[in-house]
Design goal:
about 375 residues, binds ligand DP6
Length: about 375
Amino acid sequence: KIYRASTTAPVNIAVIKYWGKRDPTLNLPTNSSLSVTLSQADLRTHTTAACSASFPGPDSLVINGAPQDISGPRTQACLRLLREQRAALESSSSPAPLPSLSSFPLRIASVNNFPTAAGLASSAAGFAALVRAVADLYQLPASPAELSRIARQGSGSACRSLFGGYVAWERGGEGAAGGAEAGAGAGTGAGAEGAQARADDGSDSLATQVAPAGHWPDMRALILVVSADKKGVSSTAGMQATVATSELFATRAATLVPRRMAQMRAAILARDFDAFARLTMRDSNNFHATCLDTEPPIFYLNDVSRAAIRVVEDINKAVGRIVAAYTFDAGPNAVVYYLAENESLVAGTFKADMGSAAGWDTERGRAVQINGG
Ligand code: DP6
């Protein structure tokens, strides 16, 4: 007998960025972060998990048809935690015992509905879908928040893809270098040694929904695929280098982000686009400033990214108020947030301006409109 479960998970794009780990093993972040979930009609990962006593081991994972190496600690941590929960269910299930799925080899297959060549980060949707597919297969009674705790260990940003709408990843106070978010030493890892004594499993570092997508149904996002190339410095390696060497980063993590998290939450709850947009742009720029402040410096933005920033600035100046906001992750692709009422202005200007911008790759560069709801 083969047991099976399928699920999907959306892509999310942070407006307050996660950058920095206070505990790389448990993948605990230095600061909290907040993201907007993109429409699954446009960008999502679909994952099927299957297990059977008749499958030859070991576990396997195929993404878009390509077999993956899953021996790394990230995937192993997720699978181990899910198996442990299943094993606990099985051992408490007498007198009607459950099949011992936890001991069967797993076969997991994922497919993205967006081209891998689009150069969009897919690890967030990927790990979120993987964790939920296996949790469904194992019939775990886990809530999305509990699953987010597991997905976090696959890839930090994945914990925010277990919800729709507006999602916060709370850094939590447990684990190495825990303590209050705004507390002294938060962010630099400097307190890591002292905190080892009370280090635990970091189980309070998980995602929660700030507001469902329907709370702000007019939110839209435009994705500008500047480059489909694999990024030069991976986010995992980049953020470790930033934590280790950037002096700007300590201020960002200890002071700026805690304040902005509160302001962003309030802006979203009040549907205040002006505040949402300003915070989004400033936080993206601050994150990239800490990358530049890293030794050696990390450059994720290129000339086309900077041209996109100028287009947003020009649109906002022409209208006389802020109607568009850009943000960039660990790569040159831009995501531009705007409200539906400004659709033709924002999308139209990007098409007109970016299509002819110097350095714009007209072959691969394209704007994909997605629904932020
Ligand atoms: C810039 O979640 O990819 O996109 O936890 O090491 O897998 P790991 O990092 P990852 O980092 C994402 C960084 C970011 C900002 C964000 O999504 O918050």
